[in-house]
Amino acid sequence: MADVDFISSLEYFGRDVRTGTIVLYIESLKKDTGEKFVKLCKEISKKKNIIAINSGKTKGGEKAAKTHTASMTSPHEIYSGAFKQAGVTEVNSLKEALTLAQIFSKYGKLGNKGGIITNAGGLGVMAADCFSNSGINVSGIPEKILKQLDNVLPSGYSRDNPLDVLGDALSDRYEKVVNMLNMYKVFDFLMVVVSPQEMTQPMETARILTKRGKPVFACFCGGKSFKKAKEYLTEEGVVHFDDVEDAGRILGKAIK
User: What angle do CA 61, 22, 75 make, to 5 degrees?
Assistant: First the structure.
């Protein structure tokens, strides 16, 4: 901050052809630079995604910021308003920022129609709540597609979104459903939720998600039994989550 500030950094990365997404960590802006910051972000956000974390929101954070950059923080509401005005996506943690940057870098902004595929009905309901609370449209599945799904899924599946493929689902059941929903372009993106049950195949299910051109995300809600599958998804660049709450919150910030 003594040498390179947000304005000069934004000007540089805004011009850089190799940069598609910009992530900002902001404790404070220099005096009298707010208007220029907003104007510059507005220009850049027309062609690139900008993500920002604003820290120093609390008394303790404000005190820490003074010792870190010798700066006075402003009320958080001022920054939030400026971010909205400038087309900047605000996040609350480094994890959110990096996950969102990965989504933007791979897919850009998402459409708002999300499909949920799950092997646990309860997690499907929770995911639907989280999606809806984040502004994601959890629309139903057209009847003509449900008739096709009737041929590949056992009786008793949910016939709706969230699509509960039942607890005995092997990886091939997930694969058939993902392929069909992508083929018919029902949703802008899919989230595959997997819970650890007796028949679950975490690694095999992870593998079917790695060669998807369309946005497909994973939510593997399990502990040690899913460790290798999650590591594999990370290596293959598949965006994945540990729980549906994180997924709903972050994906909600990725939609247009």
Answer: 30
In this prediction the pTM is 0.88
The model's pLDDT over 127-167, given as tens digits with 9 standing for 90+, comes to 999 999 999 999 999 999 999 999 999 999 999 999 999 99
| Alpha carbon distance 145, 53 (integer Å) | 41
Burial category of 214 from C-beta neighbours within 10 Å (exposed 0-12, middle 13-18, buried 19 and up) = middle
The secondary structure of residue 41, as a DSSP letter, is H
Task: Encode 137-201 in three state secondary structure.
Answer: ECCCCCHHHHHHHHCCCCCCCCCCCCEECCCCCCHHHHHHHHHHHHHHCCCCEEEEEECCCCCCC
For 163, list phi and psi in degrees, rounded to 5: -95, 105
Which of 79, 1, 90, 7 lies closest to 44, judged by CA? 7
Domains 6-92 and 114-254 share a fold: yes
Give per-residue pLDDT as tens, 16-52: 999 999 999 998 888 888 899 999 999 999 999 999 9
Q: 193: closest CA among 249, 120, 255? A: 120
**What are the structural domain ranges in the chain?**
6-92, 114-254
CA dihedral 187, 193, 194, 199 (to 10 degrees): -50
pLDDT band at residue 256 under the 50/70/90 scheme: confident
114-254 CATH fold: Rossmann fold (3.40.50)
CB 207, CB 233: distance < 8 Å: no
The alpha carbons of the chain give a radius of gyration, in whole angstroms, of 21
The CATH fold assigned to 6-92 is Rossmann fold (3.40.50)
